[in-house]
Amino acid sequence: MRSRYSAYAMGLSDYVFRTWHPRTRPADLTLDPSLDWQGLEVLRALDDVVEFRARFTGPRGDGVIHETSRFEQRGGRWVYVDGEQHA
Q1: Which pLDDT score is estimated for 9?
Q2: For 7, what's the count of Cα atoms within 13 Å in the CB-facing half-sphere?
Q3: What are phi and psi of 86, to 5 degrees?
């Protein structure tokens, strides 16, 4: 989870793409370069589930993504499967 956050913050779309399960990842992944990622708070991590808050600043001001994400081991690596965003 932390490595994927870092990849978003650094604009490394190839890493985000490679760590996304092929069954659920988009065909094309373009990261928003106007977002400035401010921090990650992991609220809960249990087995294959991670709940987090990621703060960012963008053209519309400050924002937060609050999500519970599911991961799966594939080829000995953890990959992102999907997530449920919270209001």
Answers
A1: 97
A2: 16
A3: -105, 150
Secondary structure in 3-state letters for the chain = CHHHHHHHHHCCHHHHHHCECCCCCCCCCCCCCCCEEEEEEEEEEECCEEEEEEEEEECCEEEEEEEEEEEEEECCEEEEEEEEEEC
β-pair partners for 68: 51, 84
CA atoms within 13 A on the CB side of 72: 9
Over residues 25-50, the pLDDT tens digits come to 999 999 999 999 999 999 999 999 99
Which pairing describes strands 49-58 and 61-74: parallel, antiparallel, or unpaired?
antiparallel
pTM: 0.91
**Tokens 């401010």 label which residue?**
38
Question: By C-alpha distance, which of 87, 20, 76, 83 is closest to 49?
Answer: 83
